[in-house]
Amino acid sequence: MTKKQKKNLGRIIVAAFLLIVLALVETKGATKAALYAVPYLVVGYDILLKAMKGIKNRRPMDESLLMVIATLGAFALAVYDEETGGEGDYREAVAVMLFYQIGEWFQSYAVGRSRQNIADLMDIRPDYANVEEDGRLVKIGPDEVEIGTLIVVQPGEKIPLDGVVEEGNSALNTAALTGESLPRDVKPGDEVLSGCISLSGLLKIRTTKEFDESTAAKILDIVENASSAKSQSEHFITRFARVYTPAVVFSALLLAIIPPLARLLALGAAPEWGTWGYRALTFLVISCPCALVISIPLSFFAGLGAASRAGILIKGSNYLEALAGVKTVVMDKTGTLTRGVFDVDAVHPEKIADTAMDILHLAAHVERYSTHPIASSLREAYPHEKDDCTVEDVTEIAGQGIKAKVNGQTVYVGNDKLMESIGAKWHPCTREGATIHVALGSEYIGHIIIADVIKPGAKGALLSLKQKGVNRLVMLTGDMKKVAAKVAAELGIDEYQSELLPADKVTALEKILAASKGEKYLSLENLILAVKGRHETVKAKTAFVGDGINDAPVLARADVGIAMGAMGSDAAIEAADVVLMDDNPGKIAVAIGIAQRCMTIVKQNIYFAVGVKFACLALGAIGLANMWLAIFADVGVMVLAILNAMRLLWQE
User: Fold this and answer.
1) How does pLDDT run across 504-528, given as a tens digit for each residue?
2) Do 497 and 513 belong to one domain?
3) Which residue in the list 62, 332, 354, 577 is annotated as catalytic?
4) What pTM value is reported for the model?
């Protein structure tokens, strides 16, 4: 909770306490008005200042001004009631402002907490380069590194700038940059791009570009440009108030002036200024949009809270609204639909006498001391890797694989180049994935297929999206076509595009957005258009789901960007509007379901509040509504709308 939120909460508590105390104290006249003015000013002074600032800046017609006019009107009615022999009830004016501020605090807290959680995730992003000075490593900012500088990247660190490897061998995790699931081995002379992660070895890299021109910086620049192309609807309350506020204020003014003048000039009767002034003030109290300005933010707060409980962070209520209208979901493959890690997918012995376990046994022992991700997969696939076998003379052959003596026999594990170098008669495999060949001496005994596997529940997640009204599923990936086709077939995805670079993904998404058919769905935007007398069809929303840095531009360009947060890159999380904290694709349908329920409740509250308000305004204008009806139209409708909004917190 921020200091401002704590301060506002303290004001709300103090005002509520004073209101309760004053209800137990009997006072009259100016003393009573002055006492009730204290909690009113405590909780509402900032709304008064906003209204005055709006008048000063010539933008007065918003909910702040109407709130001020309505509550001060309630004070005036209480004074008038006392002067005419009544008790003078000031509680309604204070309560209206109090409930309004509670709603504002709830919305501020919910959105603020969501944004802070996202900001915390950004703190883990490394933002330095290692430069060797006098035999020790010094961390400096990447923007301080000049072209031609020798930088050091240790295992587990991100490459901060583009360059060429001068010393060292390593496997690079390029999934965040290219979407490719398999790591890429690099050796001296190879070019490397910023944003890749060194997995298994220390690298010394000679930089070829400055930070502003590096690959990662350019992608982040694309994110900024894409963000400017995304339109965001203004908050419904503010836009509605631009029409509603001046209408009711001028209507109340006319109600206070026109009928008395008409009686005086046309009929020659007493104008009855007091009666019509009372009706005008009652009209203003009825017109106070508390039910809207509180229940709608509270509905979004409840929706954000329900999403947070489900492990879904939504950065703002505008994205919650957009989620409800999603009809097309575009997804990345690696890390989104697949796990982004490697498993043994198949073992193919060359001879009947050799078994899969024999091949795994030898491969796991040879890879015993390697930190390469594929080596880890081989060790995990053979549960008895730490048996009594002797493993010695382990030698890594750069760019080819590893050889070692297992129980005195030389075993080779690696790629086709290694097999050719030892004269082993190997053959390619048609199965998708990385092929790891195994040879005993120069005799080829088989190969192992290492592949990125589909996430458990991914197929069910896509089915759930269909059930939520999503009618188009598209997969965009940087992987090879045959890998993409296999995943699409297994998951039942009809549309996919493969071998895409980051810029290609943006282009593909632009085409999907352009081809998106206009589909009517009831949104707050449509309600605003209806108020303005326009009946346009609003296009259904398109969401993109991804986790890599290469997905960041597409996440920013989509109507709703959804990042797989637990494994996702910092840039993807920063660019996204929604973050799934546990990387479960099934949460996409959960998020859309929560958004749809939230928007249903919001629309219910809008129709109910506006309908009751207009009915009571009509009754107030003809003198059939007294202050009791005004209180129901204001506070009563507000309470009912709040209870309706809170239903979201009780739904799973």
Assistant:
1) 888 888 888 887 655 444 455 554 4
2) yes
3) 332
4) 0.61
